[in-house]
Inverse folding.
């Protein structure tokens, strides 16, 4: 038997139901004709309902406003992520992370003998500049 509260399920179901109902209502409100009888609904009844509601063009204006707001938010977030959160290419965080154990040795011979040509067993991270020097130099 499942233990616990079902309040989250009820919340998300009611939110989904209200959103879908509002969307269906807006679509029907936007496309329903004013001067035609639809099945058993008379056009006078449709006109009286449409007189209570705001003008249809406000629905389109509101939808366009919301869509442009979403477009602006997506564009602003994309620019913020690219300009502020992306590290520079010369930053060490583009290659390694904060948990790296980078080997820092001042003597080149010690680095070559102890770390470069021997297996590090995954405990140490070799500096990318020294690795590139070893791989791509003509020496």
């Amino acid at each position: 038997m499942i233990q616990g509260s079902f309040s989250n399920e009820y919340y998300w179901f009611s939110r989904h139901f209200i959103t879908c109902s509002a969307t269906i209502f807006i679509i029907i409100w936007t496309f329903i004709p004013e001067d035609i009888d639809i099945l058993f609904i008379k056009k006078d009844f449709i006109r009286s309902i449409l007189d209570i509601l705001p003008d249809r063009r406000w629905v389109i204006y509101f939808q366009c406003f919301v869509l442009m707001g979403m477009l602006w938010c997506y564009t602003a977030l994309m620019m913020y992520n690219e300009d502020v959160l992306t590290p520079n290419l010369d930053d060490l965080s583009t290659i390694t992370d904060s948990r790296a154990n980078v080997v820092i040795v001042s003597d080149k011979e010690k680095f070559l003998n102890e770390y470069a040509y021997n297996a590090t067993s995954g405990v140490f991270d070799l500096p990318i500049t020294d690795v590139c020097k070893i791989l791509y130099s003509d020496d």
